[in-house]
Amino acid sequence: EVQLVESGGDSVQAGGSLRLSCAASGTYSSYWCMGWFRQAPGKEREGIATIGGYGSTSYAVSVKGRFTISKDNAKNTLYLQMNTLEPEDTAMYYCAARKTVSCDFVRNDYTYWGQGTQVTISS
Predict the structure, then answer these.
(1) Within a 10 A sphere around the Cβ of 39, how many other Cβ atoms?
(2) Is pLDDT of 77 > 90?
(3) How many CB atoms lie within 10 A of CB 105?
(4) Angle at 32 (CA atoms; ends 27, 35), nearest 5 degrees
(5) Which of 32, 37, 101, 107 is most buried as measured by Cβ atoms within 10 A of its Cβ?
(6) 42 φψ region: left (φ > 0), alpha (ψ -120 to 50), beta (else)
(7) Residue 28 has what pLDDT?
């Protein structure tokens, strides 16, 4: 079994930055695709950033240029650096993993999920 635990969510003002972390444990492989999703109240959960097994990254248009996904394989930890935050970024943020090297933004393709960490951006 794989466990994913997010941390780093907080309440900050617009224009600020946050770094989210996701610690993976259990029968996890560093070659798996991992991604960050978010869900705002009343909205569908959406994929915003992914990193493939060999390090290739993809971003949703809404966060490209502001967010950076990375991972530290030695620590089994996934990160999301979020800069120039906007009120529209307010959401619960989840990390997810799937047993493939390649990634996509399809929620149902991910097998493992964390419990989420709340990010709130005030204007």
Answers:
(1) 15
(2) yes
(3) 16
(4) 110
(5) 37
(6) left
(7) 86
